[in-house]
Amino acid sequence: SRKKTFHTFFHHIAGAHSDELAAASRLEESINFYQTSTPDVAKLFHIDTAAKRPSVVLLKKEEEKLTFYDGEFKASAIADFVSANKLPLVTTLTQETSPSIFGNPIKKQILLFAVASESSKFLPIFKEGAKPFKGKLLFVFVELDNQEVGEPVADYFGITGQETTVHAYTGNEDAKKFFLDGEVSLEAIKDFAEGFLEDKLTPFYKSEPVPEPNDGDVKVVVGKNLDLIVLDESKDVLLDIYAPWCGHCQSLEPTYNKLAKHLRGVDSLVIAKMDGTANEHPHAKSDGYPTILFYPAGKKSFEPITFEGERTVVDMYKFIKKHASIPFKLKR
């Protein structure tokens, strides 16, 4: 039997309200919907028979067994309520729960990353912190030492090692991530969640350490120095976003190095590369590897221009000449 049920106490088991409930049940198929007009049956499901009807309650087997609905009695509103509230206060990420987390109408998530042996210490705090945000944020526990789901998700968030951390994730197309800096305490979790809900947090992006020195023909860009190198308004910048395992990227590397060597004397021009698997930045998004982007000087607030020609020295050189804001000549 299903672990979650939706119970409604009506004056009559017919009419507009009953029709809305039936429509909601078709929109939310993972929950069993029941209706009754018998007070003794309603009492069995913790419904106050003296309260205004229709009275509605969502029952679950988790700690938070009852959730009462006081919204508009419309199918879409009821289905959204059920979808948002059918999960427990904190959901453990597994392959089974993944669709209900990432397919939930509530997109914003707070995630606790911890190894299984630490979960008994941090999960009670995390659950307590989740209570004020029920129906507003999803609270998710990710077991770091779970190879099936924990490790891939931790890698996506740039988490290395087994330290307990808390992150926030917008869960939408911009996929912004945020990091709780400092001790994982109840107050810190609540403050972090509140700041996230009110869009007051600064996004966190994966980054390798800033390389020193960085004076080769091809400048090495990481998440932390992209603003300094790529978004420098005084420079035209060509950026190759690559993946270490990508065969096409490996084939491009000697050609790209040769291009950079030819252009090393042009002070207004920077030829750069970034490992897209280890670094992130909102102004450097790739549609696969390699992705070659050009950032004209003085136009860094605009989207970069994507290179789509043949990956030869000549074609890339012509592309740079065409789009560069600062004209240049090669030194002989």
Automatic annotation (TrEMBL):
GO terms, molecular function: protein disulfide isomerase activity
One GO cellular component term: endoplasmic reticulum lumen
Domain Thioredoxin: 196-325
Domain of life: Eukaryota
Catalytic activity: Catalyzes the rearrangement of -S-S- bonds in proteins
Keyword Lipoprotein in record: no
Location relative to the cell: Endoplasmic reticulum lumen
E.C. number(s) listed in UniProt: 5.3.4.1
Coiled-coil blocks: none
Gene3D superfamilies in the cross-refs: Glutaredoxin
Protein name in UniProt: protein disulfide-isomerase
Organism whose genome encodes this protein: Aegilops tauschii subsp. strangulata (Goatgrass)
